[in-house]
Amino acid sequence: MPIAYINIGSNKGNRIAHIEQAVALIELLCNSIAQRSPIIESEPWGFESQHQFLNIGIAIETHIEPTTLLKELLNIEKKISEASHRDENGNYIDRKIDIDLIAVDDIIIDSPHLQLPHPRMQLRDFVLTPMMHLNNSWVHPILNQNITQLHKQLHEKDN
């Protein structure tokens, strides 16, 4: 059965409770128990905020086709919080929950509604670090590098 890699973040309200609710709803949706990374704290990405994010990565077996899975993950986000992730100018803002479909095995999808693997995953430590805990041998099917290599490259750019 395919494995979906999903990143869940929260920087508003009871961050752990929001993440736990999201994981529980995803497990129910997929009828499977998720493998979890440790929770990490990270700076907001793409906007300024004094509120840190908590992030977790999960790996979960699913029979759900990726486009449908993304739609269902967005529905789970809305169940937890109706609030938008962006302000009236289109900029990112604080949010109770953010769920991103990062990858499904080595499937490549490039459509207007879904890009897999996630097109900015290699730029985000809060995605790469949890994914290293889940499957550090996973190879990005476009960049042909494993998670450990992507993580190392990201940190070499920071220095």
Architecture overview:
The chain is α+β, with helices and mostly antiparallel strands. Helices cover 34% and strands 21% of the residues. It is built from four helices and seven strands. Strands 1, 2, 3, 4 and 5 form a five-stranded antiparallel beta sheet that branches. Strands 6-7 form a two-stranded antiparallel sheet. A hairpin with a 4-residue loop joins β6 and β7. α3 packs antiparallel against α4. The radius of gyration is 15 Å and the shape is globular. The termini are far apart. 33% of the residues are buried. The mean pLDDT is 93.
Helix and strand run? EHEEEHEEEHH
3D shape = globular
- The tally of beta strands, per DSSP, is 7
Mean pLDDT across every amino acid position: 93
Helix content: 25-40%
- How far apart the termini lie comes to 39 Å
- Total count of helical runs of at least 4 residues: 4
Low-confidence runs of at least 5 consecutive residues: none
Q: Report the biggest beta sheet as strand number plus sense, adding barrel if it closes.
A: 5 strands, antiparallel
CA radius of gyration is 15 Å
Task: Name the structural class.
Answer: alpha+beta
